[in-house]
UniProtKB/TrEMBL annotation:
It is an enzyme of class 3 (hydrolase). Gene3D superfamilies: P-loop containing nucleotide triphosphate hydrolases, Tandem AAA-ATPase domain. Keywords: ATP-binding, Helicase, Hydrolase, Nucleotide-binding. Transmembrane segments: none annotated. Residues 480-640 form the Helicase C-terminal domain. It comes from Actinomadura rubteroloni. GO terms for molecular function: ATP binding; DNA binding; hydrolase activity. Residues 114-286 form the Helicase ATP-binding domain. Its EC number is 3.6.4.-. The keyword Heme does not apply. This is RNA polymerase-associated protein RapA. Signal peptide: none annotated. InterPro entries: DEXDc_RapA, Helicase/UvrB_N, Helicase_ATP-bd, Helicase_C-like, P-loop_NTPase, SNF2-like_sf, SNF2/RAD54-like_C. SMART domains: DEXDc, HELICc.
Amino acid sequence: MLLEELKPGLRIEGLIPAEALTIIAVQRHGTDALELTYKTTTGSLGQQVVFRKDESRLRIARSGGRPFDAPASEFKLAAEAQRITLAGLFDPMIAVATSDVRPLPHQIRAVYGELLPRTPLRFLLADDPGAGKTIMAGLYVKELILREDVKRCLVVAPGGLVEQWQDELFFKFGLRFDLLTNQLIEAKANLNVFETNPLLIARMDQLSRNERLQAQLGESEWDLVIVDEAHRMGAHYFGGKLEKTKRFQLGESLGRITRHLLLMTATPHPGKEEDFQLFLTLLDKDRFEGRSKTTADTSGIMRRMIKEDLLTFEGRKLFPERIAETVPYKLTRLEYDLYEQVTAYVREGMNRAERIGGKRRNTVGFALTVLQRRLASSPEAIYKSLVRRSKRLEQKRHEILAGTYREAEPPIDLEGLDTDDFSAEEIEKVEDELLDAATVAQTVDEFDAELRELTELVRVAEQVRNLGTDRKWTELSAILRDNALTRDANDSPRKLIIFTEHRDTLAYLTARIGSLTGRPDAVKAIHGGVHRSERRQITEEFTNNPECQFLVATDAAGEGLNLQAAHLMVNYDLPWNPNRIEQRFGRIHRIGQQEICRLWNLVASNTREGEVFTRLLLKIEEQRKAYGGKVFDVLGEAFTGTPLRALLMDAIQYGERPDVKARMHRVIDQSVGDGLKDLLDERALVSDHFTEADFAALDASMRNAHTRRLQPHYIEAAFKAAFTRLGGRIVQRERRHYEITNVPAHIRAGKRAPIAARYGRVTFDLSSVPADGPAHADVLALGHPLHDAVMDETLRRFGGALNAGTVLLSPELAEPHLLVGMIENVADATGASIARRFGYAYIDSNGTVTPAESAPHLVLDAAPDTPEVSAAKNLPWLADAEDRATSWIISHRQPEYLAAVRSRRSTELARTRQLVTERLATERDRLLTDAALAGRKERLGDKPRESSDSLRGKAIELDHRLRKRLELLDQQASMFAKPPLIVTAALVLPTAQE
């Protein structure tokens, strides 16, 4: 065709191989060349210079560019593979339908009401322990993967939880994540391990402490990063200085390299409002800049639901009641004498450490505190601790004589013990390292004096230990006899968990419980030294073996383990960090728990610490009667001004003084009495609740999702047809279960996830997989590597049929129609896609468009090869039918779609604009005021804490940040609909034409 014939709106072929282009604009350059601007069938724009010599290969595209000559069987096969692959664009809850989970109302609302609508996501999911946050995260990840919004996802979790994350994502969601192990790193020695593994789980401290990994991480980009136990990424103000932990710096780095960021924790508030707001800067630095005294507005950025407010779909309470009971007891005379002597030793050591000051004071104070806690734990623990300490100090005495003595240095910042920055496993390790080594003694004479004192303490401790009259054990054995050594209503043994602070006590209790029951195998133990794989094995045994009845554990088992097989728990030792009480209780008070959860707290009432705990537990019980189990959720936050640890140390050092006692009682009464009430009232304002209207809306959305969902029988039919066409063999074993005897090599080759050569048992419907049946079956659904590989290979081999089109027959139509499948897309001015959907529509000869059912190609028959069918392919109106369909969609469907997306997103953006502007402008103005004051001091010859130039520079930087953020918000608020993308078409004729 001649260059002079090219004009806007014309559809041509020949410029790009196998592609029909629509000309957008023509700019002529002389008589023998012109510049074409065009749009491809995928909707992308391009430009090319065309010369006179190119005329011979250009032609007008016929029939809208589609010859409709593809075999109908290949078209239908590819169309169904395409529909299934794009299921995330029309099935609103595709992850629910294709995952082995039964989500609850609060989980559905979290994923589909809070997380998915926010693009890009910056969010803190802070529901209570046991509410199923991992399930919510798994649904969110799978939903985004199936919607083609996420291809690269990184999960960062504490070391003890990474295998659990891997298992949950695989067994419940079919998502195969790799663990960032040393073996994986070594295998990718010459590559960036983060670039080569798109679905990855990494240990938090592995990343925060390894500079090489941090450098590689900084060079990578992610679609989604999830951080579990994110509260460990803490930062704190000490005086006027901001101290960022390595984990906090890791959090900042992760925020810079990902589009979506989801933080998860059950304890979001560390007790100090300014530290909480520092934590929130990981999500939005502008919104939480500076040190504000006012309570943070977390709307749109955080979701927290309290256990007692969670309901089932039937409106019943999801969690049973939880009851805590204090069990006071008095030490025997010999136990009390030992207590007084060791306490005097600890108190004197603390007083001497106070006089020394500096880091040694903190180190020695910490070590002596651990010794005091072991004294309260058991005769076994204090005896062995005193023996070990004597041996270590004797060794240090020899080091002084040899000139090799070195002061013990804490491996972690001891100030962070009450902020939950460190895991129980880390704290256990630090205690073991420092307990026996930290001392105020520095000379041989000082060591000799302390060793003489320790020798006497060891003698008394050994005497108490050997007598075997342990009052605390007596109380525990009574609880076991009354509650655990009797059978429940179903004649099954009751399971019980006992938490202790120390391994010596753990070993002691394990032996004594074994002797009491006469069944040593009925008792299992977990502490920080138990390897993760063994910890999982013990948990499995305790959960499933009826004869495994008792679990004795340190707080290493209080983090991330699901132990709801038990509903009885004893705090043999009470933790000095009150957050640990809820973490322990949360191991049994979880989703799936059917029994009332009972907790017994053992307290020696005639000790200084016991007096503090007795008062504390009394106040907790008073508040529990008024507020139910909610008091445990906020217990750690109650001690914002004075940590519980500080109260207990004061009790040890000065507990006999009336004024100190009165102050401790006053702090407890204010914190746990009035303080808890205020916290719970405040939580009630920021926590989510379910109303009847919420349940009605949720029920409607679930019904809507069910009607639009991709039903398992569609997946089954499509997979079997495609798999056999590709050379695979699948045979039925029993109803709804199959065996795959051969997976062709070309399906297995080059896939990211491993695919087996055969599968002994597969199914396509989750409901056909028994929850506790012995026969495992792979569920072939979206996300399963074999299923996805078959769909991909089908589209690769037969996808050309979608472009060419085919001819189908319908008994429902009276005249020919064009059937098109299209994707609609809403984007913003940043270029990010905000919302997408996929569907089919019919176009008739008049250009009228009507929506089609979700899979119209499945109910249409192949057209015979007759002259009438061949003639129909050249119907004149087909030439611009797709253009007319596009115009109709743009004018009739997209305005409503765009308005719905814009309405939902604009409210959130407007709120963010307001909060960011208020925070940054306030902080900028404060800096300018401080700069003016500093300038006056400088003119008077005084030296201010910070120069006026420095303060003004910071104010200017904040002003620049504010302008940049507002520009970004303007771009995000500018939303528009992209032209619909027609991805396939078929000519549908009335059946009567046969």
